[in-house]
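[Q] Does anyone have a clean structure-token version of this?
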Amino acid sequence: MTQPFSQELQTFLSGRKLLLTEIPFPKALIQKHLENKFIAALPGIIQNNKFQCERCGNTFPYLFAQFPCANCQTNCTYCRNCLMMGRVSTCTPLYHWIGPPSEMDLTESVLEWSGTLSPGQQTASKRVIEAVYTRSELLVWAV
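[A] Here you go.
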């Protein structure tokens, strides 16, 4: 028999990797879901040949820095690329849903649109996609 789980927590965490402080649910509920393997914790920063942020995917060495960490009592590495969303470091776990898929996950796609873009919108759309793939900066100035 499978353990019951919180559908609200499932919906909130599905598709996300969040710091514990970003999850607006009681710590006891989160712990229960960790124990029942509905939620997993993974290191915020991993290091193989180089550092990689598990939240934003950053691997650029110049976007990592170190600080004296009060949690683990060592010099922790953190990601400066996504710092504005909260500091992710080597000793800071990110939590994500690994249990049954939510109803939203089972739908074909939530990001579908059947409209038509104007030529200017089409150009902007292509450039945004290119910027995402090349991880470059882009300013889209539009209404």
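[Q] Thanks! Anything notable?
[A] The first strand starts at residue 39 and ends at 43.
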